[in-house]
Structure formats: structure tokens, C-alpha cells
Design a protein that fits this description.
Layout (H helix, E strand, L loop, with lengths): L10 E4 L6 E2 L3 E3 L2 E4 L7 H9 L1 E6 L4 E8 L3 H15 L1 H8 L6 E4 L10 H12 L3 H7 L1 H17 L5 E5 L7 H6 L3 E6 L2 H13 L6 E5 L5 H4 L10 E4 L3 H4 L6 H8 L5 E7 L4 H9 L3 H6 L4 E2 L10 E2 L3 H8 L3 E8 L11 H4 L3 H15 L10 E8 L7 E2 L3 E2 L2
Parallel strand pairs: 8-9, 8-11, 9-10, 11-12
Antiparallel strand pairs: 1-2, 1-5, 3-4, 4-7, 5-6, 6-7, 12-16, 13-14, 15-16, 17-18
Helix pairs in contact: 2-3, 5-6
Length: 399
């Protein structure tokens, strides 16, 4: 966090991009720990991408340091407890309590090498895994989006026993499907996320119906190479995986091999026309965020997301999945909700007003043109009957 008042324990950081900043920190075993607050600031993102920065500690002498996000839950708790003890309950509650990540700056290790998009994504999800469920369920907007996703998945997947999920996180949609009697294979690029979803499934006695695979969407063919053709009855990926993956070229062919004829494929993707989110950004005095949403490749931090995003329109996605899949429906996850990092806009409304807003929102989500104007869209594809069929390795149609 950039220091809001008088300097305390001067630690000055010069990141590869942006002006130097003075930070509050704690020192544990010769390493300096910082809690970035609010939407991920540019200095933190550039420091993480470069895997290092330059520190000045009191004496003014710059020191190169290695930078990474803490991922071990015990180390994160230790750092957060140390912050609270050092700065007191008031500053803790005001600035740090709702922050989810801890940045480690280690002058004993050299910077680099720089991280690519995939490495940034892995580190991001590793770092928030222990608090991911709490963060999402504690945010009324994120909770609403997850609920609406589950409300669509359960009836869509009824009668489809074996389900594939890409980008499961901690299982906010996985657990309801397991509890509904499905067998779910989940794929995620974060080992700690897979540990979390496994732990949650065990807690409700559903872990025998859960299988976990480590990997990412763009390498799905490798991750599930041992699965028989038509091995899944349904598949889905929501809220991120389709938009943080730069290359989707292998995805349609792999899905065609994995899903049997008639199987539903449900995708939750960021909209290329997020009019509602843009209006909320403008109303909140954030014109740069509103304009950034028009781009197809959005740099990390431009719209409050900590990772680089790749936006695909519906026409592109439909074309990618033809001829093996047909697009059945498009609807907005929410039309009237503000972007999820700003829930305070809704919390100011009364309970009855929020109820009316929710009813209006649900009514608009499937009506044109509003069905295309939410920040997130739900796309339902269906594995075509009599299409070219499962693909051979390499994406070539089988004769």
C-alpha cells in the first residue's frame, strides 16, 4: 500500500515501471513483506512481472531484491498477524484487512527471470487460494454471479453424470455439482487450488466423486490425453479460464474429442460489450477503466483484474467451435450489477431495493440486447450430433 500519511519505517520501492513508492511493511527473518491494498496497483504488478525491484531502507542505499507473492497459508497468516500487531487494529481494519495477497521482497536473492502470463496466473491463484472462497462468498456481487452460474448448471447438467470443469478454483461451482450427484473431473493450473477443492469435497463426503488434474486450458489435450473419446457427458468453464488463456487454438478440437454427442458445454466469459460495467465505471469516476474495457487484450490492472485478459466476441467463439458444437443460447450473468470490486454501490441500498434490483436484473439477463451487455456472459454450446467427430491427436479430423 502506498503510505496514506506520515512515513512509518521508510521502505522505498522502485519498480521497473512507475514512480518510486513508500510502503508500509513488516520484516520477518530478513525479508520484507508488503500488503498491496485495493485494486492491484501498477507498482505491485510490474514488480511481480519483473520478479524483482530496488529497495531503499533508511540509509538510502538501493538494494536489488527478488519479488514474489506468498502462497503458503501459514506464512500468509504470519505476515498478516505481524501487520496487525505493528500498525494496530484501526489501520489494519481500514487498509489491510480486506486485502488478499502478501508481496515478499527478499534482498538476499537476485531479481528475475521475468514472469510470463502463465507464470503470473499460477502465482496469482497460488497466493489467494487459502482465502479464495472467503473472498468470493464475502463479496455480494461475486456471490451473486456464482449463484447464478450454479442455477444454470444444475438443470443444464441434469442426467449428465460425468462432468469436466476447467479452472475450478476452490470449487464454488464444483461442490454444488458433487452434492447433486455428479462425478466431476476438475482441471486447474494452481496446485493449491486443487488442494482446496479436494479439502472442501472431503468435508462434505464427496471426494470419491472428485478427480483433480493439474494443468491449464491451452494444454488441455495433454492434461486429459488418457481420457477416452466421449469420456465426459458435460463440461464447463466460468469466470476466468477462457479469458486468461492467450491461445485457444487447441480447445475446440480437444473438447470435441472429450465430449459425447449431445453433451452441453457451458462457458462464462467476459463480454466485449460490457456496457453496464462501463457505465458503472464512469459513474464511479473511473473513465480509464471504462475505455480499457473496449480493448481485446487488456493489460493486468487496467480494469481491476490482476492478470492480462483476452476478450473474444460471440461471433469468434461460435466460429471456433464449429462444426462440432452449435451455440444454443447467450445470456448475461448480470446486467445491472457493478463490477465486482466495487460492492459498496449495492450495499448502500435497502434490502427491499436490492430485492427489486435482483428481480429486474434476472428479467433482463436473457432479453436482447441486454443479454449481451453484462460484464460476464453465459454461453451454452451443444456437442453436435453427426459432426466431424472426435479429433485425432494434433487436431486433425479422423477419417
Amino acid at each position: 500500500m502506498v503510505e496514506p500519511g506520515p512515513r512509518v519505517d521508510a521502505l522505498r520501492l522502485s519498480s521497473p515501471q512507475g514512480d518510486p513508492v513508500t510502503l508500509r511493511f513488516v520484516e520477518i527473518r530478513g525479508r520484507y513483506l508488503v500488503i498491496p491494498t485495493g485494486p492491484d496497483p501498477a507498482w505491485a504488478l510490474s514488480t511481480l512481472r519483473a520478479a524483482g525491484a530496488s529497495l531503499e531502507l533508511g540509509d538510502g542505499a538501493p538494494r536489488p531484491c527478488h519479488a514474489e507473492l506468498l502462497s503458503d497459508p501459514a506464512s500468509i497468516r504470519e505476515a498478516r498477524d505481524a501487520f496487525r500487531r505493528k500498525y494496530g487494529d484501526g489501520p489494519w481494519e481500514r487498509y489491510f484487512a480486506r486485502a488478499s495477497k502478501v508481496l515478499l521482497l527478499d534482498p538476499r536473492r537476485p531479481p528475475g527471470p521475468p514472469r510470463d502470463e502463465v507464470e503470473m496466473a499460477v502465482e496469482e491463484f497460488q497466493s489467494v487460494s487459502s482465502r479464495y472462497t472467503e473472498i468470493n462468498l464475502g463479496n455480494p456481487l461475486a456471490r451473486r454471479l456464482r449463484l447464478r452460474s450454479v442455477e444454470r448448471l444444475l438443470p443444464l447438467f441434469r442426467g449428465h453424470e460425468k462432468v469436466l470443469e476447467i479452472g475450478c478454483g476452490t470449487g464454488l461451482e464444483t461442490l454444488p455439482l458433487l452434492e447433486a450427484g455428479h462425478r466431476v473431473t476438475v482441471v486447474d493450473l494452481s496446485p493449491r487450488m486443487l488442494e482446496e477443492v479436494t479439502s472442501r469435497a472431503k468435508a462434505v463426503g464427496k471426494d470419491p466423486a472428485l478427480e483433480t488434474r493439474l494443468g491449464r486450458l491451452g494444454r488441455l489435450r495433454e492434461v486429459l490425453a488418457d481420457v477416452a473419446e466421449g469420456g465426459f457427458d458435460a463440461a464447463f468453464s466460468t469466470f476466468g479460464a477462457m479469458n486468461i488463456e492467450a491461445d485457444l487454438s487447441e480447445v475446440p478440437g480437444t473438447m470435441a474429442r472429450l465430449l459425447r454427442s449431445g453433451a452441453p458445454l457451458f462457458l462464462g466469459v467476459l463480454s466485449p460489450t460490457p456496457l453496464a460495467a462501463q457505465l458503472f465505471d464512469l459513474a464511479a469516476g473511473r473513465p480509464r477503466h471504462a475505455l480499457a474495457r473496449l480493448d481485446r487484450d487488456i493489460p493486468a490492472g487496467s480494469i481491476d483484474y490482476p492478470l492480462d485478459l483476452h476478450i473474444r466476441d460471440i461471433t469468434e467463439l461460435r466460429a471456433r467451435f464449429l462444426p462440432d458444437f452449435r451455440l444454443e443460447s447467450v445470456e448475461a450473468a448480470s446486467v445491472l450489477s457493478p463490477p465486482w470490486p466495487v460492492p459498496g454501490l449495492l450495499e448502500k441500498l435497502s434490502v427491499s431495493a436490492r430485492g427489486r434490483l435482483d428481480r429486474w436484473d434476472r428479467a433482463l439477463c436473457s432479453r436482447w440486447p441486454f443479454d449481451h451487455l453484462g460484464e460476464w456472459l453465459f454461453l451454452t454450446f451443444r456437442r453436435a450430433e453427426g459432426s466431424v467427430g472426435p479429433l485425432a491427436p494434433g487436431g486433425v479430423p479422423r477419417p
